[in-house]
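[Discussion] Sanity-checking designs against the backbone

I'm trying to build intuition for which residues belong where. Below is a structure token string of 155 positions. I'd appreciate it if someone posts a full sequence so I can compare it with mine line by line.
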């Protein structure tokens, strides 16, 4: 065997390997494109909203105290997050009344000094407010803060 013959079969093998790689990459790309199209044509899935570990739960009952009074009785902690969940039914007008109730509960929370995360979702009544320990908020409070030349902190 000459040196020229050994070099030519190695070059041919490298070319074939490169062609095989390009065909495999094109097939994977085409398959992922079909999956993306299928996902876009499917109806969105309804999942319950995520909640953190609850510390206190308020149910908006007709004979219960207002949300602002209930929040005033809770211990304030910057690591807590208030989530107000207002359910709505299948009847026409249920969603608009749920949105109105969510706005009223958010106003009550603001009067008590809380910023509420509002969730309006299908489900059975009553509306509820959950005061929960949020680990994402807690980690952000523990993150080191940088100081500027003026002494103000940056996140």
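Best answer:
Here's mine. Compare freely.
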């Amino acid at each position: 065997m000459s040196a020229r013959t050994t070099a030519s079969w190695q070059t041919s093998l490298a070319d074939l390997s490169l062609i095989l790689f390009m065909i495999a990459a094109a097939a994977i790309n085409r398959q992922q494109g079909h999956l993306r199209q299928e996902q876009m044509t499917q109806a969105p899935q309804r999942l319950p909203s995520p909640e953190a570990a609850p510390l206190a739960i308020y149910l908006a009952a007709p004979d219960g105290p207002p949300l602002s009074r209930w929040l005033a009785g809770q211990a304030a902690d910057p690591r807590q997050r208030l989530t107000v969940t207002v359910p709505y039914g299948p009847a026409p007008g249920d969603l608009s009344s749920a949105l109105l109730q969510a706005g009223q509960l958010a106003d009550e929370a603001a009067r008590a000094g809380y910023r509420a995360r509002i969730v309006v979702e299908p489900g059975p009544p009553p509306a509820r407010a959950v005061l929960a320990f949020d680990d994402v908020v807690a980690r952000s409070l523990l993150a080191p803060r940088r100081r500027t030349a003026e002494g103000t902190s940056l996140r």
